[in-house]
Amino acid sequence: MSELERAAPRLNIPLQLWAGLLLIAVAWPLNWALPGHRTHLLFFPLWLGYSLFIDGLVLLRKGSSLLTRDWRRYIGLFLISAPAWWLFELLNWRTGNWEYIGRDAFSDLEYAALASLSFSTVIPAVFGTTELVSTFRWVKQLGPGPRLRPVRPVVLGLFLMGWAMLALLLAWPRLFFPFLWLSIYFILEPLNAWLGHPNLGDFTARRDWRPVVAIWIGTLTCGFFWELWNFYAFPKWVYHVPVVDFLPLFEMPILGYSGYLPFGMELFALYHLIVGIIEPSARAYIQIGDPSPSEPNIA
Known about the structure:
Distance between the termini: 40 Å
Order of helices and strands: HHHHHEHHHHHHHEEEH
Low-confidence stretches: 1-9, 289-299
Helix content: 55-70%
Structural class: mainly alpha
Shape: globular
Strand order of the largest sheet: 1-2
Number of strands: 4
Radius of gyration: 20 Å
Number of helices: 13
């Protein structure tokens, strides 16, 4: 085999990686530099570019990716993502932890349509980045953590705790605002366990916390770029968070980034609840870590 033939596989960069880079290269500068309202049109291509770029990196590192594994299910991530984020917008109507500057330029119908398009990129970005993080050697080599089995008392306790958190959040939102990022997971994780849907308890029961860590780091990475690209955007979001509203990194208070950790777990639970109801026999799709008998795929 010639030197050129040996080098050829290394030059086989996935098409979605190039397409993602192109979208980012065009949408990022325009999102920061154009005058007036522009982010309502540029948020989607920017985050579509991010998602495609990350998908290409995953494909390079592990030989498969969300897009190449099943392009129809990849589109499904976008379709599920929008209503999933609207759930958090519904809770925010009570807490008022964030608002959108420039929203008044749009009618309710325009805002709903444009916001839904933007919200559709959340789950593809988070799940793609989580898969990328799961390929890192330091994640694969993490040792066992505490054992947490989804047995009936534990699952029931989490379920009741989730509803209690939600009730406290709605009753006293300024005091219990962090529960916005916890209550949904504690309600949905038990439902997935009871219904036999994939859940993180399948892993923690074996003391395998690598999928949880991958979700945390993947969502936090997305959170950094959400806040970075939002900083000079317009329309944009700003925060009104009691108690921890200090030391901002971009618009987000530094302690607020901790909310991204459970947020990724909530998205994981929401996605698998919806998919499990729509298509209970769906084959494995999302893979956090290398599939093996001791580390199964996450459907």
